[in-house]
Amino acid sequence: MKGIYQHCSERHLHRYLSEFDFRYSNRVGLGVNDMQRTERALMGIVGKRLTYRTAHQ
């Protein structure tokens, strides 16, 4: 792994993969500019909430 991610736990692997999938699917090479990518990201978070539960819950 290169860049900002130095470790990828199994617990959060699906989140890392989703982020890279989004980046790859919304890149300049496919004609998606920064504004469009931002709008798509914001549309994707509507109605979602990220929560962390403790291990004993």
If you had to describe this structure to a student in words, what would you say it looks like?
This protein is mainly α and 57 residues long. The protein has a domain of 36 residues. The protein has two helices and no strands. It is flat, with a radius of gyration of 14 Å. The mean pLDDT is 84.
Strand content: under 5%
Largest sheet: none
H and E string: HH
Average pLDDT across residues?
84
CA-CA gap between termini: 31 Å
The coarse silhouette is flat
**Helical residue percent?**
40-55%
Task: State Rg.
Answer: 14 Å
- What count of helical segments does DSSP give? 2
Number of strands: 0
Q: Ranges with pLDDT <50 over ≥5 residues?
A: none
Compile the SSE list and pairings.
Layout: H1 13-25, H2 34-45
Key attributes of the depicted protein:
57 residues; mainly alpha; 2 helices; flat
What's the short version?
By secondary structure, the protein is mostly helical. It is built from 2 helices and no strands.
